[in-house]
Amino acid sequence: MSKATILEATNIYKTYPNGYEAVKGVNIAIMEGEFSVILGSNGSGKTTLIRCLSGLLPITHGEIIFNKTSHNGTGNSQLKDIRNASGMIFQGANLIDELSVLTNVLIGRLSFMPLWRTFLFRFKDIDREIAFNALKRVGLQDKVYEFAGSLSGGQKQKLAIARAIVKEPAIMFADEPTSNLDPQSSEEIMELLSIFSQKDGKTVVCVLHRLDLAKRYADRIIGIRDGIKVIDKEHPHFTEDDLLEIYGQNGISMVNDGYSRHEGTIIETRRNYCYK
């Protein structure tokens, strides 16, 4: 049985006010329940691309179809529709360090609340229950009342995942969620995203630098070079030639060096993060 398309981008461009064209004529169709990884070197346009797909940036030209609704990606209401139905995990977690772990997660529930409750941070009991369950799923149930700023880098990314989960998103976007983490924390974050995809049947689109993580977790690998999509393949069909297409000869040596350094760091974390 073929999967339905949840997100489709047709001939999208993104040009910044200074004239720099970061995304050039990209066409992508993301399937429901698919774990897609976007690879590319620094400055290739992969972060701009995922921000356009997630509604965080307006596109300059083209069309984005999300949940069978067409958007040109330029109107604030259209961008809001995509943002409200998706979760986003940033490279730096984007938490409010001065608030508790629980409150940071509850912020993900604001779009479900009437305006007056959002101003007063008056969350319902059901919202708190959802937040507690999300924290349990990512292994932070013992950190509920601690300040977010006191957490380690890996714990902050887990908190960011919990905040995204409570939005009950149809699709989860992650922009280099492991780039500032040690190998073990990186594995744990990727395992959580994988379980979100495999167990919950949700769609994940993730920008990564590490090839070894892409090879282990991706159903599909999309390669971006100079703002252009150069590779779009299911993981089993991804080859060394595809790496050359994405990174060039000089980039391949750097990618393979990173892969060899992390290749042995495979941590059995799945049993610790199975959703209850």
Kindly describe this structure:
The chain has 276 residues and is of the alpha/beta class. It has a domain at 1-85 and 172-177 and 203-268: Rossmann fold (3-Layer(aba) Sandwich). Helix content is 37%, strand content 23%. The protein has helices at 46-53, 76-84, 101-106, 115-120, 125-137, 153-165, 183-198, 211-217, 240-262; strands spanning 5-15, 21-31, 35-39, 61-66, 69-71, 86-89, 171-175, 203-207, 220-225, 228-234. The longest helix is centred in the C-terminal third of the chain and has 23 residues, at 240-262. It is globular. The protein starts with a strand and ends in a 14-residue tail after the last helix. Mean pLDDT is 84; it is low at 259-276.
Which tags fit this structure?
276 residues, 4-stranded antiparallel sheet, alpha/beta, Rossmann fold, 37% helix
Q: Report the principal-axis shape.
A: globular
SSE topology string: EEEHEEHEHHHHEHEHEEH
Task: Classify the beta-strand content into a percent band.
Answer: 15-25%
CATH topology of one domain: Rossmann fold
- Tell me the radius of gyration: 19 Å
Annotation field: number of helices = 9
Structure summary, number of beta strands: 10
Structural class: alpha/beta
Q: What spatial order of strands do you see in the largest sheet?
A: 6-7-8-3-9-10
Short note summarizing the structure:
The chain has helices spanning about 45-55, 75-85, 100-105, 115-120, 125-135, 155-165, 185-200, 210-215, 240-260; strands at about 5-15, 20-30, 35-40, 60-65, 70, 85-90, 170-175, 205, 220-225, 230-235.
